[in-house]
Design a protein that fits this description.
The protein has 14 helices and 16 strands. It is of the alpha/beta class. The protein folds into two domains: 273 residues, Acetylglutamate kinase-like (Carbamate kinase, 3-Layer(aba) Sandwich), CATH 3.40.1160.10; 147 residues, 2-Layer Sandwich (VC0802-like). It has an eight-stranded mixed sheet with strand order 3-4-2-1-7-9-10-8, sandwiched between helices.
């Protein structure tokens, strides 16, 4: 029998009505056997996510403030859902325990994780599914990194014992038993971990949009949806800030080549976006899969005659950047030049010191730093096979009157990244979109 893992985000589980919607989606397909739940999200634009409220409680306790009234709002979120669903389920003991544990300084991650814990208890009860506490099946190492293999073994063994189960997203435990969370939005990772461990046929990630769009809708009006994207393409796009799915959630399913399907809880009839393994070969109707980008970059230009013939030159530059904890996001090099694109935020306070140090270790002829850049990535598996894509991209950009500061085409020919001035960012995205889509 087929098996699907389904993850519901906070907006899909924000109130009684959404719980009902979620239950009908799950019940409509008996292969939807394992469910990963987020904490209740916002019900309206000016509402608060329960996770944020729990962080606030933690901070209030740290500042020795009284949380009684504020915590009551969290209590009401959960008791409101339970009574709306007509569930015979008393959660007051759990809520009281959590409050006192928080006051006894059980930690920031413990506080934050209780949002998913409580929501999953309620959902399991409502669906009549078993509850598996993530703290017993998801593990971190002493250094705080995720322990993939230990988790996979434990999760696999536990899932075998349950035909249907709800697992809270976002957290696991440290070797000493304390709770640790992933970074924000981490329930997506939990879903992927469960999909890998159960060798699922599909990982459905239910949220409040019908998948990915080919461009940012704040820049391009009504961009087309992306129906299929490969893991690699998505890495390129999400790294550039395309949101929707936590960027680390690709890794667990990638191990088993499991497809992820982004679906919309409020429009279950929409097919959403399929995220498929890289071996996927399908004609891409539009040549490009998407265009995305980010502001906030700087370029460090290093010039030195005959640098290419000097042993260890690049190594010294990288070592120096490393010492200042600055990552090279992109690198372009010429015969006597080397340009490192870095995050302006990382660079800012260290700029003068870094340039002095770079001069010292390289004896360069000239080093300049240009700030206020944006990166735009044009991504598409279709670009590999077709000639003239780069020409179209650059004529579209120059047609918009934009000057390109740097170009980087990955050797996989999957993406072309250009650096431009921040003030040209929106224009550039729009021009590329128009060239390929309109
Ligand atoms: N509730 C957590 C957050 O708001 C995790 C998640 O929803 O994935 O970040």
């Amino acid at each position: 029998m087929q098996l699907k893992v389904v993850k519901f985000g906070g907006s899909s589980l924000s109130d009684t009505e959404h719980f009902m919607r979620v239950a009908s989606i799950i019940k409509a397909d008996p292969t939807r056997r394992y469910v990963v739940a987020s904490a209740p999200g916002k019900r309206t634009d000016d509402d608060q996510k329960v996770t944020d409220m729990l962080y606030t409680c933690y901070n209030m306790i740290k500042n020795r403030e009284d949380i009684t009234d504020y915590y009551q709002k969290i209590v009401e979120r959960y008791t409101g859902i339970i009574s709306g669903l007509n569930l015979n389920f008393d959660i007051t003991g759990e809520l009281e325990y959590i409050k006192s544990a928080m006051m006894a300084r059980s930690g920031r991650d413990f506080a934050a994780s209780r949002g998913e814990y409580l929501n999953s208890l309620i959902l399991a009860k409502y669906l009549g599914f078993d509850f598996i506490d993530a703290e017993n099946v998801i593990f971190f190492k002493d250094n705080g990194s995720f322990d993939e293999e230990k988790t996979n073994e434990a999760m696999k063994a536990e899932l075998k014992k349950h035909k249907n189960a709800v697992i809270p997203g976002f957290y696991g435990s440290m070797p000493n038993g304390t709770i640790k969370t992933f970074t924000r939005g981490g329930s997506d990772i939990t879903g992927s971990i469960v999909a890998r461990a159960s060798n699922a046929d599909l990982y459905e990630n239910w949220t409040d949009v019908s998948g990915f769009l080919m461009a940012d809708p704040r820049i391009v009006k009504d961009p087309l949806p992306i129906s299929t994207v490969t893991y690699r393409e998505l890495r390129e796009l999400s790294y550039m800030g395309a949101g929707v799915l936590h960027e680390d959630s690709i890794f667990p399913v990638q191990k088993e080549g499991i497809t992820i399907n982004i679906r919309n809880t409020n429009h279950p009839e929409d097919e959403g976006t399929l995220i498929v393994p890289n071996m996927y070969t399908d004609e891409n109707e539009h040549l490009i899969t998407g265009v995305a980008g980010k502001k906030g970059f700087s370029v460090i230009n290093i010039e030195k005659n005959r640098m290419g013939g000097e042993f260890g030159f690049a190594a010294r530059v990288f070592k120096c950047l490393d010492n200042y904890a600055i990552h090279t996001e992109h690198l372009a090099s010429g015969i006597d030049t080397m340009s490192h694109i870095v995050s302006t935020k990382e660079l800012n306070s260290k700029m003068d010191e870094l340039v002095t140090e770079l001069h010292r270790v390289t004896d360069a002829d000239n080093i300049t730093v240009d700030t206020g850049l944006a990166l735009v990535a044009v991504v598409g598996r279709g670009m590999k096979e077709s000639k003239g894509t780069a020409a179209r991209i650059f004529s579209a950009i120059s047609g918009a009157g934009v000057n390109v500061r740097m170009i980087d085409q990955g050797s996989s020919e999957l993406n072309i990244v250009v650096a431009i001035y921040e003030s040209d960012y929106e224009k550039t995205i729009q021009a590329i979109y128009n060239e390929f889509i309109k």
